Structures are given as structure tokens and as C-alpha cells.
């Protein structure tokens, strides 16, 4: 979809969207369209019994008189004082879905809020476009038999604004965000026969180059991991014919002596459970058990693309968890890079084993200012929080509060759950330093977080359990069903609001 920003002129083709305030008050562009169509807009507003101009209300006027347009869409805006960036993104997303569903190929958003609105005109235009771009995402590369009416139709979007060049400027970072979200959604959507540790590492490596200055990518192979002593990660990988990889992405956008922010991702490209094998029903979902890694890679892409004034390192552990004659067994004891030994009582609690070595490597090599890991770690977080909030765990209140605030601002909410010594003691092993599951099934997400915390020293750290939010079974305004890329916008906002230097 091609997006342009331009001054408002009466469109002569395609679809046009105009705003209507609550209590059916027409905005200025809505009045202009009404005059040009012999009162068709006002008539539609009066005739649509359920239309009040509240947010999320859309009324199409098909083939209006007086202008050669395919349709005018009346979009409810709600009350002026309640308009904010998120509402505009959602509106842009809902409109993109409506227009694509209707088969429109070109559209103009003429949603001028006028003076007195709490959002500046350029920002209004940029947020509408951002929402539309996020919702227009599709993963259809494997569909060879789609009929034209099954494909998205909207190819050209013009966003009318009184400040086109300022809007274009404001859209630079947002457009980069939409592209990075799409990049992550692509990774998460790919099936495991196409996306496995080596191929996923290659996709990350391909980001380094002249288009994204400041970004460098290294790939650690199995031999290097063995030298480093990453026995926990290697134990998970040993049952698969796919070799594991660790990808280290560095972005330098601040002074060389500024310690980087560390972002760590679980990248299990497929999780069968291993010898502790999962039941067949729903196992296909485990192709997206690499979502944490996908988010970290997309975030690093975005920081580089918008030239964030920060140093960051993104490290992902990529493995496939398979049962085989060479797979690790329940009861095996592995030695992690930290030196701690781990009794692997359940081979399906594999994400924490991968994170253990990757987190340790991150703090050991980079001395980061803080570390945040993302992982589809536990089914239990879905029992606790459903698909609305990600689980947040942290050893630092300020870090937790900042993540909560950033999540709220972008519509990717996180909910903090506790950590504590009494939970921690549940993973003491009788034969090794730690075991990878507790004796009973209570507090599964907390137990997972406690395990991960054993591999974090004195550095502010947060863990986001994204098992419930990485994939969506229903459409939302800016997130079509499927891979969500939950975390990319949150962490980008987190960096922008708290860690960028002048
Ligand atoms: N990848 C799964 C967690 C998961 C479940 C993610 C559902 C997304 C949707 C993880 O590796 C796992 O299998 N966790 C186990 C842990 C248990 C064995 C302690 C779980 O949640 O059952
Ligand atoms: Mn598992
Ligand atoms: Zn897993």
C-alpha cells in the first residue's frame, strides 16, 4: 500500500473518508463533501439510525451523487477531548479493513479534526496512516489460489492534512515501525520447515548493510557455543538435525562508552516438547515459539531504521526442540555457561534453558545497562492473563514501571507478576544446582521466571512472557489475526521515552 500526505482537495475518484463528531456533528471536510453531493452526507447521517458519531462507528455512502466517487465513508470520532494517537491508529486500522473488504483500490482520508483538537494535524495524519499500514499486513506468500476478491485491494492511500510535509516527517519513524512490525510478523508466521535456526539467523544477518547504518550482526555456530560452554542451549538443540544458532545484533546510535540496552529472545523454531512430547492437538502453534526472538530482531531493525540515539544489543538463541535417538532425556544434567548445573526433568520446559545461556552471554560480554528478555515461555501465563496482557517479571521496580507505561501508551499492555524466594526454592534440585520444573503445577509462569532469574546477576532485568499475546485468533484494529509482533512497538517506545540521549 502506497501512502501519501497531501493538502485536501475534493477527490474525483475512489473512496473518501470524513469524520463525524459525537452527536452527529460534521467536521469541515464532511461539510465540504455534503455540499458537493447535494446533501448526501447529511441525509446518510440522519438516516443511519445506529450512527451517533461515536468511535468505531462507520457508515458507507455508496455511489454518492454529484461526485464520481465509489463511496464516502462517515467515520465516528467520538468526543474531541478523547481523541489521542491510539484512537487515530485504531481508526486508520478499522478503515483499512473496511476499504479492503469493500474492494476499494484508492482512498483518501479527509479526517481533519480542526482547531481545538488535542492532536496536531501532522500527528493526526501520521497516526491514521500508521494504523492503516499496521492493519493492512498480510502473510499470503504461500497462497497460490486466491481469487481477486480474497486479496487486499487498497493500493493507494492519500491522507489529507493541512501540514503535509510535517506529516511526512512524523511518519518517518512510524513507517519504519510498521515495516519492522511486518518483518517480525513474517518471521513468526513462517512454518518451521522454512524457518529453522540457520535460516532465521540468515534473515537477521541480511539486515546488516548500507540501508541500516550502525547495525552489525554476528552468528555463533555450534562450535563456538561449545567453546563458550552453552550446555543448556545445546542440550535442547541436540535432538534436532537442525544446528542451533545464536545471533548477536549490535546497534550503535550513541557514544561508544555508553553501555548498551540488552534485548534477549527465545527462538525455539519449533517446540514438539522433545521426549516430554506435547499432545498432537494444537502442536502446530509451536511454529511461533520463536516469537520472542522475532520481536528482538524486528526491534533492532527498527532502532537502526529510525536512527535511535541509543546503544543496544539484541541476542537470540535459536534451536529446534525435537524428540529423537539423540534427544536429551528427562533427568539429564547439563552444565550452563554460567557454570551452574541444571537437572532437566521436563524437556518441554526448554525455553528457559535457552534463555539461561543467552542471558548469561549477554551480561558477561556486553555489561549491559539492563536486560529484557521476551519468550513464549509458559502456557500458564495464558491461564493467568489470557490474551490481553503479557506477563511481566522484574528485579527492578523502575524498569517494571517504565515497561508498564510504554505498554499502555502503545496498546501492548503488560501485567506484573511477583517473584520471590519461596517460589525460587521450588526449583532447587536434589542432584544439581537447579531443576527446570517445580514439583507441582502451581504458579507455572512465576516458576519459569524464577529459573531465568538464576542466570541474571546484578543487572536490572525484566522478563516478558508473551505466550498469550504473540499470536491472535481474531482481528483487532491495528493487528490482523495471526502473528502480532507484540513487543516491537512497546520496546521501541520504552527506548524512545527513557533511554535516548540528545
Ligand atoms: N512454548 C511452550 C509454552 C507455550 C504454550 C507457548 C502455549 C505458547 C502457547 C513452552 O516451551 C512449554 O512447553 N512450557 C511448558 C512448561 C512446563 C513443562 C513446565 C508449559 O507451559 O506447559
Ligand atoms: Mn516447551
Ligand atoms: Zn517452548
How would you sum up this structure in a few lines?
By secondary structure, the chain is an alpha/beta fold. Helices cover 35% and strands 21% of the residues. It has 15 helices and 20 strands.
How does this model look, in words?
The chain is α/β, with parallel strands linked by helices and 502 residues long. The protein has two domains: 2-163, Leucine Aminopeptidase, subunit E, domain 1 (3-Layer(aba) Sandwich); 181-498, Aminopeptidase. 35% of the residues lie in helices and 21% in strands. It contains 15 helices and 20 strands. The chain has an eight-stranded mixed β-sheet, sandwiched between helices. Strands 1, 2, 3, 4, 5, 6 and 7 form a seven-stranded mixed β-sheet that branches. Helix 3 (85-102) packs across helix 4 (121-135). The protein binds ligand BES, manganese (II) ion and zinc ion.
